[in-house]
Amino acid sequence: MRILVAPDKFAGTLSAVEAAAAIAEGWRRQAPADEVDTAPMSDGGPGFVDVLNAALGGDLLAVTVAGPLGTETPATILMAGGTAYVESAQACGVHLTGGDNGENATTYGVGQLVSEAVAAGATRVVLGLGGSGTNDGGAGMLAALGAAADVPLDRGGAALEGVTEVDLSAPRAALAGVELVAASDVDSPLAGLFGATKTFGPQKGIAEERLPWLDGVLEAYGAATDRRLALEAGTGAAGGLGFAAMLLGGSRVPGIDLVAEAVDLSGRAREADVVVTGEGAFDFSSRAGKVPAGVAAVAAAALRPCVVLAGQVLVGSREMRALGMDSAYSLVDAVGEERAFADPAGALADLAQRVARTWSR
């Protein structure tokens, strides 16, 4: 049989590349005659550059940028032809803030990454959005590219209070002739009930009682730049980084679709007999733009069954089938929580071996 293994990262334990290798190892133990094809996936969040590097090759450019709280942090840009792939989480990820201080965290380092990519000769910059610890509407990114305003743009969302004017002439000039693409799975607008602050603010350490105020600050920031654009789907991605990208003329594409096209997921699925995907927690959030749902859609279009291996499975069989998956298997249920976290690669390989007993003829 031919097996396509296309998982996302298992957040906090395994990268997508590591997860794919573990699943492939376990499957081959049980079915050594099977042909196992690995295609690590990403929706634009952490691991975006690693996944595309594994698929596309290219050159990795190592840089140092400002982290979300001002500390210098290393990052990597993937240069493939005239396109630069940039992972915003490397410069402003929640792992760099510890899930705290989201009011003051800045996306300045993301702007530095974009600037470095352009300086390296990129005529197209694809910015992977996801996993951010920031909530500044992308103001920090704009500041790093030369934007100016009547309030500081590089000190986080809270510092935007009172903003009435933002001059974007410098960043627009800096990106003249450069195509900017935001790769994201988030459909939230910049502000409002379903906006960046109220939807994702709590997981970035923003206190419940501060959410309405900070949401109002981002609403005013949107009004000072482009009120209509701020209402568009995706502008709330990565704490508003999606908004900043669109202010500079950028377009938005679902991250999973961009990666699927880059790795030729459709073609590889047509060559497979079974498609295997996975992620850390297979839950209701997996429905909207996440890797398992995207992989399942590709498998369905190729008329191939899709199986999910996840750290935890938190949806029932009816919901799972509605998402296009034939079966879902929980790592925690199979090996226990202690082993799942102590030896994630070994535990995932063991689970894949068990699953192969059912799915490999």
TrEMBL record:
EC numbers: 2.7.1.31
Similarity field: Belongs to the glycerate kinase type-1 family.
Protein name, per record: Glycerate kinase
GO MF: glycerate kinase activity
Keywords for this protein: Kinase, Transferase
Enzyme class, broadest EC rank: transferase
GO biological process: organic acid phosphorylation
PANTHER family: GLYCERATE KINASE (PTHR21599:SF0)
Pfam family, any one: Gly_kinase
